[in-house]
Each structure stands twice: as C-alpha cells, then as structure tokens.
C-alpha cells in the first residue's frame, strides 16, 4: 500500500529535488567508493542513491523524512495520503532500517507464523514487531529499526 520515498524508486521525487537545486548520486568517490562498490557486488547489495545539496552536504537515502533539517528544503516531512477500502487484517509499518533488508514476502511469512502460533491478537502484533526487528538486525541492517504491527478490525 505504500511507495518508498527513495531516489532509487521515485523519479518524481528526484525531479522535485533537482528542481530545488539538489543532487542525487551515490556519494561513492575515491578509493573508499571503489571498495564499497566492489564489496556490494560480492555481497549482492544495492548501493543507494542519496540526496545532497549542491554544496555536497547531505547523503540521505530518502526524499521525505522527519528531522534531517540539514537537508531542507530538499527532504520534506510531507506525508503522502492514499485512500483504500479497509478490510480486516494486519498492517505492518516500518522504517527504512527494516525495509532495506526485509522484503514483503518475509513480512507475510512472519505474520502467518505468528497467527499459527498465537491466538491472542496482542501476542500476534507484539511477536511480529519484535520478530521483524530482530530479523532486520540479524540481516545486518545498519540503520535504526522501527516496526509497528496493528490489527485492523471491521
């Protein structure tokens, strides 16, 4: 139901930032950049595009965020809204520390396992949130990790 605010996946956001005078690039220059590119190839890691001011300050791999005032007006806190017909089920929200290393399929597997294991909705949402956080840490997430799982009832 969402779209990552990433320069890698959102050409419209890249255009908005460039129109404000910002730059989008990997920031990988010199020896450390070459080494990082080489290691990412071996470990099958995608190198993120990042947002920079024209003076080189920056390096955030998202186009919208709370905080990060050093990148204003390029990175904005404005939320995107979308209306969807509400059904019964679970909603999992997470920060990029989760989504950078955990895919949607893994979230479904975690939810299904929790539903098989627990009857109480409180135990399900708690275990999904904790399980996904731990899973992201075990997969080597280098960012802060926030996960929120909620039950939607009719």
TrEMBL record:
Q: Which InterPro entries match?
A: PP2C, PPM-type-like_dom_sf, PPM-type_phosphatase-like_dom
Q: Which GO terms describe its molecular function?
A: protein serine/threonine phosphatase activity
Q: One Pfam family, please name it.
A: PP2C
**UniProt domain PPM-type phosphatase: residue ranges:** 1-152
Q: What is this protein called?
A: PPM-type phosphatase domain-containing protein
What species is this protein from? Triparma laevis f. longispina
